[in-house]
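USER:
Before I trust my own judgement here, I would like a peer's view. Write it directly below this note and I will take it from there.

ASSISTANT:
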Amino acid sequence: MTIFGLKGSELNRDTSTAFEVAFEADSTDIAVVQGAVQVDASPSFWISEHLQAGEAIRVGWTGGFHRANADGNEIAAWRHGQLIASDQSVSDVVEKLRPYFKGMIVLGSSDFAARRVTGVYDLNNPLGALHALVQAHEGVVVRRVTPWLVIISDF
């Protein structure tokens, strides 16, 4: 996949463009905060989409894409110490928290891992974020076994 920063008709030159690229398990997500971006996915499948500020696209690894509007305050929220999840699986949220925890996080329940959540989580306190993640789900607990091992499971 090739991503080019655009402004006006200038191609291959970044001119005050701000965007985020996130690689997910089954897709690549691109969201534009400022300027414009050209997204070209080839040679496996042909996608060529022009995104303006406030737009996003999810390109699936097997082809196909979905365009959407994006809130500029939510794009690259990690720069402000936040993880903003909107209808994401618990496993996706935990995966995004892993780089911020100096140890291993184990999801012991596949049922809980598949649940959908929406919330804002503090990346500066990943253990607190995990507790916040399970707080609304009865019967699910966060257990810190050692300073380097956290297990999320049913009672």
Observations:
- The chain has a mean pLDDT of 85.
